[in-house]
Amino acid sequence: MPTTTAPSPLSTKVSGGNGARRRRYHAEGLEAGKRSTRTLLWILLAAAMILYGFPFLYLLFTSFKTPIDTIAVPPTILPREWTLENYTNALGRSGVLASFINSAQTAIISTVLSLVLAVPAAYGITRYKTPSGRVFIMAALVTRMVPPVAIGIPLASMMSAAGLADTPIALSIAHTTISLPLSIWLMSSFFEAVPQDLEEAATVDGCSRLGALWRVVIPVVSGGIAVTAIFAFLASWNEFLFALLMTAVRSQTTPVVIANFQTQFGLDWGSMTALAAVYSIPVILLTLLLQRKIVAGMTLGAVKG
Amino acid sequence: MRISDRRFATFLMAPAALFLAIFVAYPLFRLVADSFFKISPIAGGARDFVGMDNYFRAFASEAFMGAGWRTLAYTLVVVTLEFALGLGMALLFTMLGRNSQIWRTVFLYPLMIAPIVAGLLWKFLMIDNFGLIGTLMHQAGLLANPNQIGWLSDPNIVLFSVAIPDIWLTTSFMCLVLFAGLQNIPGDIIEAARLDGARAPAMLFRIILPLLRPVIAVALVVRGIDAARAFDTILIQTNGGPQSASETMSLLIYRTMIRFGDPGLASAMGTIYLLAMLAVAFFAVSTIWRPGKDN
């Protein structure tokens, strides 16, 4: 049984517990009681948050500085003069907007591919628990240990042999080698939580096994599918090594363009920070919006490997 | 006609298995096969069987042994600091209780930032001349001169500097996993220890950490594997320099292949790297993590 391969403590309470548990926890748990201690803890937290949040804020501030201010000595934190020049420079550069489209395209194809392959596989593993299923899920775990650089080079030459060199499809396939194993682990734990009577009832009512999966089980785990989709998307959106090895002009993703800024245009820090901000903000907003789901997936994913 | 359950399960797993076989297993097979050949980097070029020669060359090369030690040191630094900081934050959040929820969410944000962006950002903060960190430390009176520490240009400390973005990016992950673990420690155990007069350090080392053992093991193994594969953040900060002082295994293999055009040697290095990762991971999984052995 796949769940027994992982320590269980995390699976119960990743998305907030019930009230009774909270109260008991409040009364007897690790929560600090004394007011002075609590004040001290809040000060510590504030300090940590400032330190932790500052780097990205500095990136944002820098992206609004004039090019001269960007590399001023000594550096200032806030721009002396706010300008959108870096944004127009960065986005106006040839290939930059196309790279956003490539990134989005690659991430979407890879997410869909990952889900289409992982959902049935995970269901087959958890619902039927055959020996081959057990071997398969362990093999998926081993895949997580493979360094991308080790398969990136042969994979790139396979793709060019197949005539897929420099296409979003080739890169999507490469990204799926990363997200598929994680998707299988995540989806198995979501399927594990579905009671079997549900699809047994559906089969009694005349559904085929495939029909029961499609009409009864899939709707129940739709939340889990959403979590898995977010992880597959993020993995592809942020990936760099495969993108560097497998893309040239036509299918280049934004991370590669950001890295190329360093060599091609000297050190244009202003444009680099503007582009980096544009690339990061959508996913940061997505995270804040969907944080509950992401936390659930992260803790499950960690436990599963 | 109904097919058996076993057949049906196989039918469901087959597409994913086929995908992994073609796009992971086959490239790995190619990697191992290529490691026994001397290959010309030009497409369709010469390909001569040389047996173990690439392996002997790898082990004889200073770059390879150096990259191996650096990868190990890098992994240890990243995982240790990240664990210490993550545990500290997780304890802080736990002690503050429910009120800290919104801050826990905000704390997640670096996890969503592309490693390449994080590397770039920290390079900008640490760079000589106009890097902000040197200036702030100078203004705080810690340094006599803003450029006193050559974060990315001093070979003695660069391996530590290039680890900073990685630590910044993934401390949240460690914190999150440990926080989830802390939430599952029953309150009565803590209360009992408190009644027995356990002070904070005893509470931490004798009660909390042992109870968190399975969670800690998983987090360390998962992060250890990731840190040992670091590539993006280092490449953008230093490209392995100065003088190879921050060249880890992924970078060395990449450069051997792309810059020095030696696919055979790169494949041998890749194979050794992969075997080492698998060996360490299996050792860690079977002795520290012990899946299924904990209740």
Give a quick summary of the entry.
Chain A: It is a multi-pass membrane protein. Chain A: Residues 1-15 have a biased composition (Polar residues). The complex is a heterodimer of chains A (305) and B (295). Chain A is an all-alpha fold and 305 residues long.
Written overview of the protein:
The complex is a heterodimer of chains A (305) and B (295). Chain A has 305 residues and is mainly α. In chain A, 75% of the residues lie in helices and 0% in strands. With 295 residues, chain B is an all-alpha fold. Chain B has one domain: MetI-like (MetI-like fold). Chain B is 69% helix and 2% strand. Chain B is built from 13 helices and two strands; from the N terminus they run H-E-E-H-H-H-H-H-H-H-H-H-H-H-H. Chain B has a two-stranded antiparallel sheet with strand order 1-2. Chain A: Belongs to the binding-protein-dependent transport system permease family. MalFG subfamily. Chain A: Keywords: Cell membrane, Membrane, Sugar transport, Transmembrane, Transmembrane helix, Transport. Chain A: It is found in: Cell membrane. Chain A: This is ABC transporter permease.
